Backbone:
């Protein structure tokens, strides 16, 4: 018997035939295909019994109710709460991706102490006892040296009780420098303070408005309470309510509006005055309101408008033709329930008072104040009394020192807090330097205008404590981090919803038990007060934040725990006869307090027109979260590649403007402003006016995680703050700029 | 030309016949060896290698429990209020009776000591668990379709001991999905639970059910 090559071939053929006649190949093929559908790293929601926890989303000031589904202690899906008065079951893409903030890698897992250079990212973990002791020791030393005023706190806390607790801590410690993070609501509050004489929030009866005149408000880009506004817009479409968008670029809102009017940026208040001119000249105003409930209309306001703001004059400054001005004025005045709104984009920058006063005056002219479909003054809800703080002598002396941000001074009497003026005081060190800074739910290094100088200012502070849940841009610069729970782990009250027109209070309830070594910032503040001892500890008679919340909310807490909100359904705003508490007890078109100022003067952008020929505008989109909360990865996935491509921000530019700079689609260009420069990629778009270029807000983080850091340009690096002459708040709506081919 | 060719080929024929009688047999023998070996590999060795054998954490006796409960399978495998199906019971249900050891079974003692006292959920191995990409509603089949548990799960309720759970080493799934027979033959409705088996029933009953699953756009009814 001879075994040759053919034998082996034959063996192979036999083996092949045998395998083919066995189930092996078919089974392996089937299993491999199943295997490829089930990678072990693909997240799969837990299976088991669903439970639902109702709570409030605090990722933006929208105040939506959410229902979070979970299995055991694992949250698996966030949905809109169907019976919530603000969002009625709707939810936005940020709210939907909130679980990534809860379970994402960017969370801070335990108290941290900086070990390397500031910002080097070198940390060592501490226990809570150690961390509280370290902060208390530093703060005690500063206090003993007699300068408690040199401790400042920046808080963007969404809970009114947390804000009160922080203010109380600062008062007991002896510092006047408790700062909050302002939005367009603060400008509206200032307008209501000046024109109505009341401390109230603006409430927009969007659902019943019959004609919407929006001065650059991103009604469909995240303005106010986004989901509510989206729903209102659906209602407008159904009942053929006209939406007129006045804006220099084709935002989502402009694209979906019935009429889009392009305007030279920064001249919105002029246009409002031009519209007022037509209404007054043609006697289209609400005579009853103007004659009986408003003061100094004929003598001052009417004269001011008729003398200075004819459609022809306004047409020259705004670039809007006079026929359009007349048409809009007539439509607006004759419509049932007209409403004019302002606050640019999402309203993250408070904005110029000239706009707020002019637009509010326009509403007043047509009687759209405290009436169906108009703007309502929703008075602040009464808060339960806490025992007064018994300051010791150090605290008394310290808190009498002037605030570093000039809020409440003669220059800016209406302002409670002026975060935008804080960093210049830090840099100058006058009237006194800051020795320690506490940061709660805020990321000033990223969100404040002129972020480079904010960063430099912060670097001058010897001791920075962050209470952030995330390694954000400011937490990365701090010396100690005492991480807060994230919103889905917290129990705290939530103030209404931005722009909601009925008194509302919400309760953020823990959906899951905290999984990391974090503590509620309220608890951290109480612990800190107790560690400092003396009069400071005495000012905090609560053993925990929950205890404080129970005492503050009283009986309401039980109802809140059950429904997670309490709303005054039958609320009606004050009638015109009782609504106004100005010096004249009437509505003031030109507030008495501003008689000597020029309240309607436009705010000019920073920069020299010859060196910087174009204007750079920031814009907001629903797909980028630009505040303290950074984008979760799901949301970043939705950003178009005409906005962010790889790590490049794209600049929106009109073909004509691009031509003057010799730029083509996709070119890299260097964008320069008086504040700084950044490389950008060119995106040519007819949707933006010639002479204006735009970048989105919220990109260009340097911290967080690899999903967010290093993507795009932070526009705040390129824009400075322009304090409003009336409110003192940041009124910068853009800056002069130039582009050069890179 | 053609003559030359013919002669040439006849020469080669002769050569093969002369030396190849035995050789052909050897070649065939090798073929058979290859065939037999690979058939054994394919039908016997491969299934043994493909599945790992796992024992349930506690050996549960369905018969014993079935005698003590009033509502049959649904006493423990029930529908929740929202219509979802509970599947294997959670510890909370077991504790209702087994807070302490009831009988003399070694398995029960282990269950109480290892899980009940330590408040750890029993990691039951679920024979019938479908892949995550399959959406299956018990309510639609049991409540609306009035199907018996046995149709898909077999005579589980009549078992006195839990059989070995076989886990596919490639996919991680239970062997019950493909079926015990490696060739995929089945005798009972519950022997296999692949998509074809779902389809078989849905095809038969499509007139009655107006079953959307069998229509052209039906993929996303089950695969979400």
Residues:
């Amino acid at each position: 018997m001879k075994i040759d090559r053919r034998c082996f071939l034959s063996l192979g053929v036999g083996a092949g035939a045998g395998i083919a006649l066995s189930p092996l190949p078919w089974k392996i093929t089937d299993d491999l295909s199943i295997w490829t559908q089930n990678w072990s790293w693909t997240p799969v929601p837990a299976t088991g019994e669903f439970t639902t926890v109702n709570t409030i989303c605090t990722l933006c000031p929208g105040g939506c109710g959410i229902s979070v589904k979970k299995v055991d202690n694992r949250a698996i899906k966030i949905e809109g709460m169907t019976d919530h008065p603000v969002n009625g079951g709707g939810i936005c893409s940020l709210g939907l991706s909130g679980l990534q903030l809860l379970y994402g890698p960017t969370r801070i897992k335990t108290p941290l102490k900086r070990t390397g250079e500031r910002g080097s990212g070198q940390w060592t973990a501490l226990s809570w006892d150690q961390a509280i002791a370290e902060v208390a020791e530093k703060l005690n030393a500063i206090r003993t040296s007699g300068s408690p005023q040199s401790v400042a706190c920046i808080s963007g806390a969404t809970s009114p009780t947390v804000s009160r607790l922080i203010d109380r801590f600062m008062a007991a410690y002896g510092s006047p420098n408790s700062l909050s993070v302002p939005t367009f609501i603060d400008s509206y509050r200032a307008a209501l303070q000046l024109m109505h004489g009341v401390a109230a929030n603006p409430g927009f009866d969007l659902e019943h408005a019959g004609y919407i005149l929006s001065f650059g408000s991103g009604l469909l880009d995240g303005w106010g309470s986004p989901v509510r506004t989206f729903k209102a817009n659906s209602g407008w479409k159904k009942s053929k309510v006209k939406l007129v968008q006045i804006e220099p670029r084709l935002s989502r809102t402009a694209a979906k509006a019935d009429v889009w009017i392009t305007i030279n940026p920064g001249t919105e208040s002029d246009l409002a005055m031009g519209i007022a001119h037509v209404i007054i000249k043609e006697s289209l105003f609400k005579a009853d309101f103007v004659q009986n409930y408003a003061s100094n209309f004929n003598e001052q306001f009417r004269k001011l408008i008729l003398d200075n703001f004819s459609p022809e004059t306004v047409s020259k400054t705004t670039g809007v033709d006079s026929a359009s001005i007349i048409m809009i004025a007539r439509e607006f005045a004759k419509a049932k329930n007209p409403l004019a709104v302002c606050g640019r984009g999402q309203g993250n920058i408070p904005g110029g008072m000239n706009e707020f006063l002019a637009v509010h005056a326009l509403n007043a002219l047509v009687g759209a104040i405290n009436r169906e479909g108009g703007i309502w003054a929703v008075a602040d809800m009464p808060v339960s009394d806490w025992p007064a703080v018994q300051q010791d002598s150090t605290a008394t002396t310290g808190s009498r020192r002037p605030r570093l941000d000039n809020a409440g001074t003669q220059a800016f009497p209406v302002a409670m807090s002026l975060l935008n003026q804080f960093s210049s005081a830090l840099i100058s060190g006058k009237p006194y330097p800051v020795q320690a800074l506490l940061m709660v739910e805020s990321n000033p290094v990223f969100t404040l205008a002129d972020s480079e100088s904010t960063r430099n200012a912060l670097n001058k502070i010897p001791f920075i404590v962050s209470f952030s849940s995330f390694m954000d841009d400011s937490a990365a610069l701090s010396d100690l981090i005492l991480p807060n729970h994230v919103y889905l782990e917290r129990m705290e009250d939530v103030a209404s919803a931005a722009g909601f027109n009925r008194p509302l209070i919400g309760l953020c309830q823990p959906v899951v038990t905290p999984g990391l070594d974090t503590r509620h910032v309220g608890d951290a503040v109480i612990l800190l007060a107790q560690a400092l001892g003396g009069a400071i500890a005495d000012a905090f008679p609560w053993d925990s934040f929950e205890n404080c919340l129970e005492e503050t909310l009283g009986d309401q807490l039980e109802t809140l725990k059950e429904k997670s909100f309490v709303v005054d359904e039958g609320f009606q705003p004050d009638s015109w006869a009782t609504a106004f508490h100005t010096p004249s007890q009437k509505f003031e078109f030109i507030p008495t307090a501003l008689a000597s100022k020029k309240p309607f003067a436009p705010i000019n952008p920073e920069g020299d027109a010859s060196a910087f020929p174009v204007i750079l505008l920031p814009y907001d989109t629903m797909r980028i979260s630009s505040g303290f909360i950074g984008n979760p990865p799901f949301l970043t996935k939705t950003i178009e590649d005409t906005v962010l491509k790889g790590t490049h921000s794209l600049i929106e530019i009109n073909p004509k403007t691009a031509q003057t700079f010799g730029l083509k689609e996709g070119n890299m260009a260097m964008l320069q402003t008086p504040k700084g420069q950044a490389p950008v990629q060119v995106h040519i778009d007819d949707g933006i006016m010639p002479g204006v270029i735009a970048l989105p807000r919220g990109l260009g983080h340097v911290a967080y995680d690899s999903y967010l850091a290093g993507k795009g340009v932070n526009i705040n690096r390129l824009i400075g703050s322009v304090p409003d002459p009336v409110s003192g708040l940041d009124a910068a709506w853009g800056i002069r700029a130039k582009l050069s081919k890179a | 030309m053609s003559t030359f060719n013919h002669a040439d080929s006849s020469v080669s024929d002769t050569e093969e016949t002369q030396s190849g009688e035995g050789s052909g047999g050897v070649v065939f023998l090798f073929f058979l060896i290859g065939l037999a070996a690979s058939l054994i590999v394919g039908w016997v060795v491969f299934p043994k290698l493909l599945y790992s054998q796992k024992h349930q954490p506690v050996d549960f006796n369905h018969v014993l429990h079935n005698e003590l409960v009033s509502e049959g399978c649904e006493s423990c495998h029930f529908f929740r209020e929202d219509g979802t199906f509970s599947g294997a019971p959670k510890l909370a249900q077991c504790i209702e009776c087994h807070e302490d050891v009831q009988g003399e079974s070694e398995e029960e003692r282990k269950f109480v000591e290892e899980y009940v006292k330590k408040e750890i959920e029993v990691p039951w191995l679920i024979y019938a668990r479908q892949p995550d990409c399959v959406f299956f509603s018990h309510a639609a089949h049991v409540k609306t379709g009035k199907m018996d548990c046995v149709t898909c799960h077999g005579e589980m309720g009549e078992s006195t001991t839990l059989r070995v759970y076989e886990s596919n080493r490639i996919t991680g799934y239970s062997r019950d999905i493909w079926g015990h027979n490696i060739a995929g033959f089945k005798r009972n409705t519950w022997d296999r639970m692949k998509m074809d088996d779902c389809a078989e029933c849905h095809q038969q009953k499509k007139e009655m059910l107006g079953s959307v699953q069998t229509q052209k756009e039906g993929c996303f009814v089950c695969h979400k």
